[in-house]
Amino acid sequence: MVTLEQFREGRSDYVDQQVIDSFRKNSLLLDMLVFDDVLTANGGGSTLTYNYMREKTPAVAGTREINKEYTPQEATREKHSVEIKVFGGSYQIDRVIENSSGKASEVARQTEAKIKATCTAFSKTVIDGDADSDTTTFDGLDKALRESSTEINAGKYLDISTSDALDKNYKELLDLLDEFLASLNGRASCIMGNTFMITKLKAAARRAGYLTHAENSFGKKVAAYDDIPFVDMGYYPKLNNGTYEETPVIPIATRMIGEASVTGLTDIYAPVIGLENFHGVTVKGNKFISQYPPDFKTPGAVKTGEVEMLAAIAMKSTRSAAVLRNIKIK
């Protein structure tokens, strides 16, 4: 088992440590996750598959009459697997640009930007990854939690799109939030939403007196609900007609609720982080996170740099994570 903080401590190179800290600062989720670092490529194979058992049916106990037996029932599990995926990106810099950038290193700037983008790509896959439609991803929570016992409010919606609607419905929102958190098999490690949803949750918690604050690993204050930190999953650049648009990682969508088409709906997610619940998966050794800076000492005017992270997510129990559906925020 390893966290990003522990992985950082295992690296002696200062630049490597700074790169890992950048991942931690750019993603509260990555900083909180524990990773099972057990995988190696077998026989030079091209895939890294993590096999695990997910609890399907819990054990049931009860009472019996004298001289009669219990009704036999067994806890059951089913086999699941996930492949470690490669997240990252590359950039190119002309040696003249770097050599004339002074203290404001272009390599450092591009590396930091690529780290942020890699964190975003991982967050997006955690939410809406679908290995059936894109083999470079793993199945995210949106897919894994459909029609599960921890999918809350799937057949209806709650309107908090305006200040008046929030004043009217914030108690119902917090009741739903409590139901959502209670569906988990332990205390939620965080509450994940998009920027608009987190803003609404903070406003509702403030109205009810449940808005608290925690500190992340770097001493920065993080808003929380009953000491469960809010995690803003941020935005990703979506290409639209040749232009990149900032789009929420957790989407705001139009859905059919009953016979009505309802706009401005979004979801909230919460995991229980731990090796027996919701956790990350990565490889053994020092290739969990890697950076490959441009080498300007060799011939060639334009050099390539890369940032890379090897990771996936495992969910050991159907109650390791939950989703609260259909909150109307717009």
What does this structure look like?
It is built from eight helices and 18 strands. With about 325 residues, it is of the alpha+beta class. Strands 1, 4, 15, 16 and 17 form a five-stranded mixed beta sheet that branches. Strands 5, 6, 13, 14 and 18 form a five-stranded mixed beta sheet that branches. Strands 7-10-9-8 form a four-stranded mixed beta sheet. Strand 11 and strand 12 form a beta hairpin. The two termini are about 40 Å apart. The mean pLDDT is about 95.
Task: Characterize this entry briefly.
With 330 residues, this protein is of the alpha+beta class.
- Oligomerization state: single chain
Q: Would you report the number of β strands?
A: 18
The number of helical elements comes to 8
- The level of helicity is 25-40%
**Estimated share of beta-strand residues:** 25-35%
**Element string (H = helix, E = strand):** HHHEEEEHHHEEHEHEEEEEEEEEEE
Q: Which stretches of 5+ consecutive residues score pLDDT under 50?
A: none
Structural class: alpha+beta
Mean pLDDT, nearest integer? 93
- Describe the main β-sheet briefly: 5 strands, mixed
Q: What is the overall shape? A: globular
Cα gyration radius (Å): 22 Å
Cα end-to-end separation: 41 Å
